[in-house]
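Action item from last meeting closed. Structure (419 res):
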């Protein structure tokens, strides 16, 4: 009997007893059986704590503007699983996915794969069969032992590094940095998009033997008036149009993407292509502002570093009225560290439950939030129930922020009819 996409995804969740098991041996064994052919023009692998999806999308747009056939892999998704895999900027359809799932199932044999590993191999198999010129791959968790790292990148990028996923990656910045540096390769270009560079990352670079370029030292950007400029190792571009939301975190990601592309093929940094990539709409859910009956702000920030960035953006936006927040977090996220940077900006919090093995129920999260904000947090049930409560409690024209997880922002975009 033929399986639907939903059937396939449910079945994959039964193949391994753990949701996450880091390691490449099982993934590499199946990848070898699939005999994956590399793309003709190169592979970018993007890791880091925050900004990965935005950086992947920027490089993807830049390569597409140069007439290249692109393949991009990101995770997690907002609404539909298909969003994780794009060819020439468009999400693949169900039939494409099912075809790749069948190939991976045949090659797997008795090898146990996690849900993420199965999907990653399906993406890589499909990209190879599609004959894409360039692959842009986002690391799922960490780097060194993530399934994406089964592919050797031509260029490695790490956006930022902060404390996250400590139960898998380590309890210190340096330990996490060493794990994320695992996507680097000896003798190949690598880029770090923030400053300063953690000592653990520098040490890993030396051990691996990669050629590291650092933001602010080897490449960077500057804003002047209504434009910005970029400089790389061998060239620069002046008077670029500013993106619609031209703040420092976004321009750092774009600058990092330009530096990585310069290392692979400088000719792709022609002005037409760079301007097209710069002025395109960023991926949804990244400080996405929608003015309807309320000002709705959607942001997938889910860790303390991202909360600091979110705070800065909220202050710059200067939205009307008291701020109402709809929030849900996975169980492994630092609730107190996420809430603290936002606490003085928020009048009321509506907390929703997040489903799944790593989910967190609303009452548990309310307790954690109340340690920071007092009695301003309310357990609201599902995402939709929390949105209804936020709408009822806020004034027309007021501002509602939806944040904390892809699993909150995605359903909220659907609830408002935006996705």
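Sequence:
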């Amino acid at each position: 009997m033929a399986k639907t996409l939903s059937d396939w995804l449910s079945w994959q969740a039964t193949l391994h007893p753990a949701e996450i098991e880091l390691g490449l041996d099982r993934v590499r064994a199946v990848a070898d059986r699939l005999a994956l052919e590399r793309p003709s023009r190169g592979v970018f692998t993007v890791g880091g704590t925050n900004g990965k999806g935005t950086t992947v999308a920027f490089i993807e747009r830049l390569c597409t503007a140069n007439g290249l056939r692109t393949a991009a892999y990101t995770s997690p998704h907002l609404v539909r699983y298909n969003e994780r895999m794009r060819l020439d900027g468009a999400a693949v359809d169900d039939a494409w996915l099912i075809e790749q799932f069948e190939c991976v199932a045949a090659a797997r044999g008795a090898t146990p794969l996690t849900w993420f590993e199965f999907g990653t191999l399906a993406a890589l198999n499909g990209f190879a069969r599609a004959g894409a010129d360039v692959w842009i791959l986002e690391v799922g968790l960490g780097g060194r032992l993530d399934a994406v790292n089964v592919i050797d990148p031509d260029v490695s990028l790490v956006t930022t590094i902060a404390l996250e996923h400590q139960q898998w990656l380590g309890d210190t910045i340096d330990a996490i940095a060493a794990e994320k540096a695992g996507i680097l390769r000896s003798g190949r270009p690598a880029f770090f998009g923030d400053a300063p560079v953690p000592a653990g990352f520098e040490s890993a670079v030396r051990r691996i033997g990669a050629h590291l370029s650092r933001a602010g030292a080897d490449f960077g950007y500057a804003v002047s008036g209504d434009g910005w400029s970029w400089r790389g190792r061998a060239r620069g571009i002046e008077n670029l149009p500013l993106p619609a939301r031209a703040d420092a975190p976004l321009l750092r990601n774009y600058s990092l993407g330009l530096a990585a592309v310069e290392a692979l093929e400088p000719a792709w940094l022609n002005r037409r292509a760079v301007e097209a990539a710069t002025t395109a709409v960023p991926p949804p859910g990244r400080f996405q502002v929608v003015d309807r009956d309320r000002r709705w702000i959607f942001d997938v920030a889910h860790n303390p570093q991202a909360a600091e960035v979110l705070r800065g953006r909220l202050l710059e936006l200067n939205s009307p009225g008291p701020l109402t927040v709809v929030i849900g977090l996975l169980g492994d996220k630092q609730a107190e560290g996420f809430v603290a940077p936002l606490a003085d900006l928020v009048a009321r919090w509506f907390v929703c439950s997040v489903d799944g093995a790593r989910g967190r129920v609303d009452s548990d999260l309310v307790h954690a939030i109340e340690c920071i904000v007092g009695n301003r947090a309310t357990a609201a049930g599902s995402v939709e129930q929390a949105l209804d409560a936020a709408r009822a409690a806020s004034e027309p024209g007021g501002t509602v922020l939806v944040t904390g997880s892809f699993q909150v922002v995605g359903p909220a975009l659907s609830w408002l009819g935006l996705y």
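Note appended to the action item: DSSP finds 15 helices and 17 strands in the chain.
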